[in-house]
């Protein structure tokens, strides 16, 4: 019976000690602020206070420790130039033959020394429909678990990348964006941005460093949107436009039974083009594209003269036929 009583007493003492030294909510200390985000090399200060009678309150820290103080209910941990990445400040209090403490959550950050972008697997122009990797190098940043690399094509956000490993000290890291080159990418600028998302306690907006833009050069063959074009003319100026985008620029060749000499411009203009077919070929080192133009004569002065000439021809035929008829008639009368 007596052993049972002592066992119960010991259990009660253990539970009481656990309740006094256990959770932060039961420790009579208040930190202000409760969490800090500090730029590497900057100053920091945090108050630790209590509202109970105590036998000493203080800060334990590898930088800026505060000795135990029995006379005050508020003490401040302060560092003017914080440079220790793994620092873990702790405020403690002694009371009622026990001690409890509160750890200060602290994030020390450093923006990247540099952020740069390049093509990871080649230099020089890209070819349309080929796959390439763009590489963003982020140098000396911390903490990397709070880093987001954002990829932009022009002003359009293309991709976000975050990092799952937990490292407190500065590191170098790389983000890769895979693209399929398209003719619409020729001359477009890509850039990457390294942003540290440090929560509500961190600086707002989040600190970010952006790379210089990388302008792409994409080579692609000529390609006409329309491969056939009908041109109607009434005899005036006719313009056949074979121009198409290409990189390197395309050279042009015209073919037609109505052309007496070779033409090499992208536009064929003339007021004397005969009706018929005209074929243009645009070509560069990557390929070629052919377009056919069909010229038709309609309306206008050409039609007028055609009708007039046809009418004159018919009139001549009628006159000749009538003359022959009269001659035959006279001949018959003379015989009788």
Automatic annotation (TrEMBL):
Residues 1-25 form the signal peptide. It holds the Pfam family ICAM_N. GO terms for biological process: cell adhesion. The chain crosses the membrane at residues 304-325. Residues 112-210, 221-296 form the Ig-like domain. PROSITE patterns: IG_LIKE. InterPro entries: ICAM_N, ICAM_VCAM, Ig-like_dom, Ig-like_dom_sf, Ig-like_fold, Ig_sub, Ig_sub2. Keywords: Membrane, Signal, Transmembrane, Transmembrane helix. It comes from the Eukaryota. One of its GO terms (molecular function) is integrin binding. This is Ig-like domain-containing protein. It comes from Triplophysa rosa. The lineage of its organism: Eukaryota, Metazoa, Chordata, Craniata, Vertebrata.
